[in-house]
């Protein structure tokens, strides 16, 4: 007895296309639509189960609904002279109204109740022109026109540019920090000069006192150096922020 005609609508109907490169997993989507007023059980089988991962590979499609099946081709060494012999089969049957165990339904199904559709697999490598176009499309856009477009699309985003008043405040703060750093540098140089003068005037009888003075001076130098370093780091961070805003 001939099998019943497939009630599911497959998209694509006859061929699954996988587009390279095949150095990573390549996924093709198979859409299954149930146009009937009955729930339909389905299974997806392949002649090369080790080469593909199918999710979901079985299930129930409610009446009037559809489901997308992801067919994932595992990485392999592509040979353009080798034709693919891989095939897929979508098997289906009308679900009983009182179905509780789908596996039991498949085991008890009669051959004339089963419906199936077959699809072949094809592998395609992108042309050189397509590769060039894709690589150019993936390059970061740095032109002023592109920046203007981006700002026009996202005028209220968190990365939107600051207004003129806020930029002016930041610039004034940067100038103040720069002056503070310069003042600290001059103060540090002056302290070093004063310490050198005092060291030259110290006699051998006052050696312990000189040692304590040198220790205190070193501590002051270290404190000043730490402050200068902290201010320089803050100034650098603010400069980076302004640079990004200017771009």
From TrEMBL:
Xref: SUPFAM superfamilies: PapD-like (SSF49354)
Keyword Protein biosynthesis: no
InterPro entries assigned: Ig-like_fold (IPR013783), MSP_dom (IPR000535), PapD-like_sf (IPR008962), VAP (IPR016763)
UniProt feature, compositional bias: Polar residues: 138-147
Compartment(s): Endoplasmic reticulum membrane
MSP domain ranges (all copies): 7-124
Name assigned to this protein: Vesicle-associated membrane protein-associated protein B/C-like
TM regions (residue ranges): 228-246
Keywords associated with the record: Acetylation, Coiled coil, Endoplasmic reticulum, Isopeptide bond, Membrane, Phosphoprotein, Transmembrane, Transmembrane helix, Ubl conjugation, Unfolded protein response
An example Gene Ontology molecular-function term: FFAT motif binding
One GO cellular component, as annotated: plasma membrane
Example of a GO biological process term: endoplasmic reticulum-plasma membrane tethering
Region ranges (Disordered): 128-159
Function as written in the Swiss-Prot or TrEMBL entry: Endoplasmic reticulum (ER)-anchored protein that mediates the formation of contact sites between the ER and endosomes via interaction with FFAT motif-containing proteins such as STARD3 or WDR44. Interacts with STARD3 in a FFAT motif phosphorylation dependent manner. Via interaction with WDR44 participates in neosynthesized protein export. Participates in the endoplasmic reticulum unfolded protein response (UPR) by inducing ERN1/IRE1 activity. Involved in cellular calcium homeostasis regulation.
Ranges annotated as biased composition (Basic and acidic residues): 128-137
Domain of life: Eukaryota
Keyword Magnesium (UniProt): no
Family: Belongs to the VAMP-associated protein (VAP) (TC 9.B.17) family.
Topology class, membrane: Single-pass type IV membrane protein
Coiled-coil parts of chain: 167-194
